[in-house]
Amino acid sequence: MSPKAQPTAVEGFNGLGLSPSLLATLASLGYEEPTPIQREAIPPLLAGRDLLGQAETGTGKTAAFALPLLERIHRERTVDDDSRRARALILVPTRELAMQVAEAVHKYGHAAFGTCVVPVYGGQAIQQQLRALRRGVDVLVATPGRALDHIRRRSIDLSDTRFVVLDEADEMLDMGFAEDLEAILDALPKERQTALLSATIAPRVASIAERHLNDPVRVKIHREKTATGEVPRVRQTAYVVSREHKLTALGRVLDIEDPASAIIFCRTRGEVDQLSESLSAHGYRAAALHGGLTQEQRDRVMRRFREGTVELLIATDVAARGLDIENVSHVVNYDVPMSPDAYVHRIGRTGRAGRAGAAITFAEPRERRYLRNIEQLTKQTINTESVPTIVDLRARKLEMTRAALQELLVAGDLDGYRVVAETLGEEYDVMDVATAAIKLAHEARSGAGARDSDDVEIPEVGVPRADVSGGRIKPKGKRERGSPGARKEHRGDVTRLYIGLGRSSGVRPGDIVGAIANEAGVSPKGIGSIDITDKFAIVEVQEDEAKSIIAALRGTTLRGKKVTVREDRGVRGS
Ligand code: ADP
Ligand code: MG
User: Rounded to 10 degrees, what is the CA torsion of 315, 319, 323, 326?
Assistant: First the structure.
């Protein structure tokens, strides 16, 4: 199991021709390697060529044009010239993008070069924009309509503008900005470098490029062809939460899912470090894995993960690539991955060999469209669900206590305690005695309940109203309570099966789902929560499929052992 050679950050952005101060910024942002469009677009743009670039949403196009642009503005700024007339104009379709792109350009350029960026867009008081413009600007990020307003009012001076970017050109045209764009481009100095970025190159985009780009380098990052068959059939869920609530949401989801082993992916090293620290501080057994670690540190983390000392591996894509990791029960995308292909790559770590797996993705509201992209490419559905509530969590913990008690009851060997029950039973109702004992056991088991101390309300942002019940307790369908697999596909009645093998025989949830899916030909979607104790497992299945599942499993083995399967007539849900 020798880990393969890891690309390091040094190989990553080096060699593209960026200056050390920009490289330092990228390192501090935790970018480990350029995305394909960045790799292909940066060198020609640095060399001064025009560019026609095509790549999907979320592939890092902003840095692809912004880094070389910042570099060139910086190089061209002469000592005697400190005028702050816009050197670069970036046109974007919407106000939201104007702010986002301006923020990104600032993030990339301010520390390295002190670059000054101003966004201007419709809807914002023009006086405020004029003040900002008078203070001086290197890079102007504008929506076409507002840019044209300013040009006509002569409130921006574009006579020094040497760099022009049309970002999301297809969108701008779809929004009816064709004439504005033409007018702006005609008003700009002819001596300039122009880059056009677009997710699609429709004929109208091509014709703008034809007329306004000068012998452009064409870069097309192909939509990766991921055969639908390569995408593992695993449960795919997304939670849409704002950044500030992400950590809390992750904690809840982890507690509900209770993964046997999981990889949690983040986009940058910084995020990996932060998240693994936060999770460790909350009592999870988590460890970080990224390109900044030495081989030895990496080996140690991997060893602990394989042994199970570490349950949660927090990793960047780069670090996880080429790792020899067997099936994990959960893949969590703490950030939406950079491309559908990266998504497929990541979730391929789970659901191997027909086993069950879960892929869970956290998206910020504005990242929702990335999810749609991924769905389109993989032709699979990602269900958006509500983040589990504190109430769901409590129910889940009670459920685990119940399972532990049931395990004890099955194992017998309680004689030493019976006398206590009998003595108390003379004075109190036996049911009350049992209930008190359960409370005691539950509190001891769930310890401080330290993890749900962050009892905050997470606002619903992702789920259409009609869907909201997914994470809520319904008055009747009580089995949905906190069950880890409480999925919306659950229709009809659910019944529980007792499976007479458990953790001590090496059985994991994936084995059970795999067996049911393969032997009984039942869709994993029809399988609900799975509780595994040392000696047995309880799995929720559709009532009408129960009989055929029992029949099918009776003839098979799990982890090489024959297995008893029957309907569970034990204590029902809480
Ligand atoms: P696009 O314009 O293609 O839709 P963006 O430029 O908005 O994509 O980038 C999407 C996200 O990826 C941003 O959050 C950005 O900070 C991040 N990102 C860009 N390049 C890298 C990289 N090389 N490594 C890690 N994260 C990156
Ligand atoms: Mg973009």
Answer: 10
Residues 446 and 557 in one domain: no
Report field, pTM of the whole predicted structure over 0.85? no
Q: What is the mean pLDDT of the chain?
A: 81
User: Does 164 contact ligand 1 (Cβ within 6 A)?
Assistant: no
- DSSP 8-state secondary structure symbol assigned to residue 267: S
Secondary structure of residue 558 in the 3-state scheme: strand
CA distance 69 to 562: 66
Distance of CA 211 to the CA centre of its chain: 40
Tokens of 438: 């359960």
Evaluate: CB of 63 within 6 angstroms of ligand 1.
Answer: yes
pLDDT at 39 over 60: yes
Same domain, 303 and 440: yes
Residues 97 and 186 in one domain: yes
Q: How far apart are CA 52 and CA 73, in angstroms?
A: 20
Domains contained in the chain, number: 3
pLDDT at 518 over 70: yes
- Domain around 523: 494-567
Residue 516 lies in a domain: yes
CA of 57 to the centre of ligand 2 (A): 6
Among 190, 220, 250, which residue terminates a domain?
220
